[in-house]
Specification:
about 350 residues, alpha/beta, seven-stranded mixed sheet, four-stranded mixed sheet, disordered N terminus, disordered C terminus
């Protein structure tokens, strides 16, 4: 396993020698509990946790914080699988079972937010892997991260499939009193049979919608990222209607569809899963994704139109710029923002 190429500059800049953490700072640990059977945790002490989003990204924010790498959600389509190859880790089962934990993330973030070079920009979380995956139940990094953001009145957003976010409800409410807080819950479909095979480590879709109900009931608006819509498996009109109807019933402020994309790393793992569970669809996928990682524009537009029409019917709308949040201008320091590692983004 290699840690040295997790550099403070873009990973494409091979001239950089400043690793995010050194191999001597890594502690490998396993836990003898059913919840973490077969999972290995690599505990590291990070030097930076604020990651700059690549300039070419379509995301409406510039900075992310990801306290974990790898994810026990084990979603077969997860685009972030490729990032494990940067550590010489397997992008398949290794991504699901070899989890890197930045154990000092809260204190590093607090230090970086206090820097006179930090502009107070919006910080997005959960854009690479889920910050409320099962590991968070043991390591409890998010309370410290949320406290640091709250104490600096720094706007932030969270995207999650995890119900563990409800543990931090009080912190979210406190932060919402002093800054803009946006929460999105990912629910691509409500088909429980499909969920059990394609997202085996996640809470059930209905449990995620319970998160929407609970947060909404406490005055925190929550949008649903309907992602991914999986071609030929969750894209029938009746399936789309069921998901949007359930989203509206849970009180979501918005619903935004995102069609499955298959980047290198994820593509191989997903296609292997497809061949095992739905072999009759392999040729159709090869044709649909023949031109690259994304489904054709005509297909994406069709799904978007259908979901938006359903959302209007049920009284909810699409999220602005892909995520439900309002960002007020914050007082800006004159100094430039700190440099940070380039981070792959959700879409």
């Amino acid at each position: 396993m290699r840690w040295e190429n997790l550099a403070l500059e873009s990973r494409h800049d091979r001239a950089s020698d400043a690793a995010l953490f050194g191999a001597d700072a890594v502690t490998t640990r396993t836990f003898d509990t059913p919840e973490f059977a077969g999972i290995t945790f690599h505990e590291v002490r990070a030097r930076s946790v604020l990651n700059r989003v690549p300039g070419a990204s379509r995301m409406p924010f510039e900075w992310t914080v990801n306290p974990y790498r790898g994810c026990t959600h084990a979603c077969v389509y997860c685009f972030a699988r490729k990032t494990h190859s940067y550590l010489d880790l397997d992008t398949g089962i290794g991504f699901d079972t070899q989890i890197v934990v930045k154990v000092n993330a809260p204190e590093v973030l607090r230090r970086q937010l206090a820097s006179p070079r930090w502009h107070g920009d919006h910080v997005a979380m959960g854009t690479n892997v889920d910050c409320y995956q099962r590991a968070e139940g043991r390591y409890r990094l998010m309370p410290g991260i949320l406290s640091a953001l709250r104490d600096r009145a720094n706007p932030f957003s969270i995207l999650t499939k995890g119900t563990l976010i409800l543990r931090d409800l009080d912190l979210l409410k406190q932060a919402a009193e002093v800054t803009d807080v946006g929460i999105s819950v990912s629910v691509g479909f409500t088909d429980t049979a499909l969920w059990r095979t394609v997202e085996p480590g996640t809470p059930a879709p209905e449990r995620r919608l319970d998160v929407v109900r609970t947060l909404t009931g406490h005055g925190i608006g929550v949008g649903v990222l309907m992602a991914p819509v999986i071609p030929f498996l969750s894209d029938e009109p009746a399936q789309l209607r069921a998901t949007v109807r359930a989203t509206a019933a849970a009180g979501a402020t918005s619903v935004t569809p995102l069609v499955l994309h298959l980047r290198p790393g994820a593509r191989e793992w997903f296609m292997a899963w497809l061949g095992q569970h739905h072999p009759h669809l392999v040729r159709r996928y090869e044709r649909l994704y023949a031109d690259g990682s994304y489904a054709p524009k005509w297909y994406q537009r069709r799904i978007t139109r259908q979901v938006h029409e359903l959302a209007q019917e049920y009284g909810i709308g699409p999220a602005r710029a892909g995520m439900p949040r309002r960002i007020r201008p914050t007082e800006q320091a004159e100094e430039p923002a700190p440099s940070g590692p380039t981070q792959l983004t959700l879409i």
